[in-house]
TrEMBL record, chain B:
Protein name: ABC transporter ATP-binding protein
Lineage of the organism: Bacteria, Pseudomonadati, Pseudomonadota, Alphaproteobacteria, Acetobacterales
Alphabetical list of SUPFAM superfamilies matching this protein: P-loop containing nucleoside triphosphate hydrolases
Membrane topology label: Peripheral membrane protein
GO molecular-function terms, A-Z: ATP binding; ATP hydrolysis activity
Gene Ontology biological-process entries: peptide transport; transmembrane transport
Pfam assignment, any one: ABC_tran
Length: 329, 344
């Protein structure tokens, strides 16, 4: 008799996670509404959706950068939902974040050398002691090399760099403590197309070299496809469809995913776009009852207006929350 | 002055815009020339800092920063706009040439209703009563796909969603039936499903109003799906211009080709690495003596480094500012790769 291999532990898992904000007048905004998902080590998960869908809030909740209203966050199999900051801090080196606005994240009055050394000074080394200056210096040089910047840039200030280079500095700083998980929130959307491709390639290279796990929050489906092996599509605080990247993007079964992929203007002449989806995204303060998408869904029926669908399996590893999923194309 | 109907709608020749800096003049826009036919949609594409918005502002006569030098010629139906007295420019602006901006929240004033602001524009240009102006406002809002236009006209800008605000701004721009609409990144701040609605609207304008559109964008996808012709700007200069299908299938400038290649494909095989363009665009102050794209170009050689290359014709209405075609080594067509990225 052979022993069954232990089930692989998710690096990060959220269970029924909700985040509610009070918006005054006794009203509540549920940005994330009961989401469950897990991220396996080495996985690259893309979180996509339009503004207000809760993708950034979910990303921040995963790292406990905001307090969680309900549900659970597990990191390396350990419940960190209510862990006090003092106990969370030793875990922080293993979970890092990269933000959209590369200049807002970097103190304009500090040189790149100090910006990169700061996390190494704040957090103790692997032996639990303060890192020696020489180690920090070596690590800072390695980091610059890793993200493709020359060491001569170490003495310069953030404003002396272009947007793409500044994002490289941010990535280097996120990597300083050798994290296992990186949550990147729209890391390339502020960059010009010609520079965006460089940073997308950098994310792919770093994943291959360091075995990182990514949660990549973005609205650009083509960018997400390039850096993810699994994609979750969000609408008004919930996941409407999740599965392997090309399965979701090329053969969507949720009408919202289908509309989202169809609406992306492709750089191909002659491909006439389909008629656009009508209406606007409803306010997350005053969500529609039943399926959240029914107000805009071309296939909505009576059941969709009262009965909220839950995620259910469609194909291997591919789930969707729809009463009437589209036939595979 | 009667308008010359035989002249192109818009004829821009050698437009140069210089800003004072570091004790000299910095050429932000450097000898840009193009023409726009009647009822056409021209896409002006480029990265940030390429000079596309400044070009539009110069056409509208909206650059009044001290010390800025605008030279060259902008002819609208044969009439020169550069140096036009402010009074005459004001009569033209809003009535014959209208503009919409990326952020409708800052383009509307927050203290008046949407309807009030559109009425005001109509009444500034035409002798109509308040009631007549409001009736037209409501009709145009309705044509722009605004649900319940009478109610929306009584709303303040902050009470509308981004998509509705952008529709209201397009309605305001079209309220006096302009011949030319300049749209500066009209969908950049919008979500992709709402962007699709607005692009659909822009495409339908020429049927509805016979308007020509100068669409400024950084998104090659928006250009491919909306514009008849394309003008690619790089560092304040024209890199390439031509019919959109031609520019996308057989780009003549290495910048156009590289820019198209660097867009990740949504369909077809996924490349391990994106063919990225190395480096960043030069600032106008450090623009090299030769081709501005030279330092980032895979085909750069000695001939590129002396003077900026002139536009070389490559086909009907198609031209690129590159020495390669003249040297007999034009770029290969991109048609094959493009067809990979169509929806299955």
């Amino acid at each position: 008799m052979t022993a069954t291999p232990p089930a692989p532990t998710a690096l990060l898992a959220v269970r029924n996670l909700s985040k509610t904000y009070h918006v005054g007048h006794g009203q509540h905004l549920t940005a994330v509404d009961g989401i469950s998902l897990s991220v396996m080590p080495g996985e690259m998960l893309g979180l996509v959706g339009e503004s207000g869908c809760g993708k950034s809030t979910l990303g921040r909740c995963m790292l406990r950068l905001t307090d969680i209203s309900a549900g659970q966050v597990m990191f390396e199999g350990r419940d960190i939902t209510t862990l006090p900051e003092r106990h969370l801090r030793p875990l922080r080196p293993r979970m890092q974040m990269v933000f959209q606005d590369s200049s807002a994240c970097l103190n304009p009055r500090r040189r790149v050398r100090d910006l990169l050394a700061e996390p190494l000074r704040v957090h103790p080394g692997p032996d639990g002691r303060r890192r020696p200056g020489a180690d920090i210096d070596r690590r800072v040089h390695d980091l610059m090399d890793l993200v493709g910047l020359s060491a001569t840039a170490l003495a310069r200030y953030p404003h002396e760099f272009s947007g793409g280079q500044r994002q490289r500095i941010n990535i280097a700083r996120a990597l300083a403590l050798s994290p296992r998980l990186i949550v990147a929130d729209e890391p390339v959307s502020a960059l010009d197309v010609s520079v965006q491709a460089q940073i997308v390639n950098l994310f792919a290279d770093l994943q291959a070299r360091l075995g990182l796990t990514y949660v990549f929050v973005a609205h650009d489906l083509a960018v997400v496809r390039q850096v993810s092996n699994r994609v979750a599509v969000m609408y008004l605080g919930t996941i409407v469809e999740i599965g392997p990247t090309d399965s979701v993007l090329h053969h969507p079964v949720h009408p919202y995913t289908a509309a989202l992929t169809a609406a992306v203007p492709r750089p191909v002449v002659g491909a006439r776009p389909p008629p656009p989806l009508g209406g606007d995204i409803p306010s997350p303060v005053n969500r529609p009852a039943g399926c959240r998408f029914h107000t805009r869904c071309p296939y909505a029926q009576d059941r969709c207006r009262v009965d909220e669908p839950v995620l259910r399996p469609i194909r291997p590893g591919h789930e969707a929350a729809c009463h009437f999923p589209l036939a595979p194309s | 002055m009667p308008a010359d109907r035989s002249a192109p709608l818009l004829d821009v020749r050698d437009l140069c815009i210089g800003f004072p800096a570091r004790g000299g003049m910095v050429p932000i826009v450097d000898h840009v020339s193009f023409t726009m036919p009647e009822a056409g949609i021209l896409g002006l594409v480029g990265e940030s800092g390429s000079g596309k918005s400044v070009t539009a502002m110069a056409i509208m006569g909206l650059i009044d920063a001290p010390g800025v030098r605008v030279s060259g010629s902008v002819r609208f139906r044969g009439r020169e706009l550069i140096g036009l007295p402010p009074r005459q420019m004001r009569r033209l602006r809003g009535r014959d040439i209208a503009m919409i901006f990326q952020d409708p929240m800052t383009a509307f004033t927050p203290v008046y209703t949407i309807g009030w602001q559109i009425d005001e524009q109509i009444r500034a240009h035409e002798r109509v009563t308040r009631a007549q102006a409001r009736a037209r406002t409501v009709r145009i809002l309705g044509e722009m796909g605004v649900p319940d236009p009478e109610r929306v006209a009584r709303r303040y800008p902050h009470q509308l969603s981004g998509g509705l605000r952008q529709r209201a701004m397009i309605a305001m721009a079209l309220s006096c039936n302009p011949t030319l609409l300049i749209a500066d990144e009209p969908t950049t701040a919008l979500d992709v499903t709402v962007q699709a609605q607005i692009l659909d609207l822009i495409r339908s304008l020429r049927g509805m109003h016979g308007s020509s559109v100068l669409l400024i964008t950084h998104d090659m996808g928006v250009v491919a799906q909306t514009c008849d012709s394309t003008l690619v700007l790089y560092s304040g200069r024209v890199a390439e211009t031509g019919p959109t299908a031609r520019v996308f299938d057989r780009p003549g400038h290495p910048y156009t080709a590289a820019l198209l290649d660097s867009i990740p494909p949504l369909y077809g095989p996924r490349p391990d690495r994106l063919p990225a363009i190395s480096g960043t665009p030069p600032t106008p102050m450090d623009r090299p003596a030769g081709c501005a794209f030279g330092p980032r170009c895979a085909h750069v050689h000695a001939a590129c480094t002396t003077t900026p290359p002139a536009l070389v014709p490559l086909g009907p209405d198609h031209a690129a500012a590159c020495v390669l075609p003249a040297e007999g080594t034009p770029l290969p067509p991109r048609i094959l790769r493009a067809s990979n990225d169509t929806c299955p």
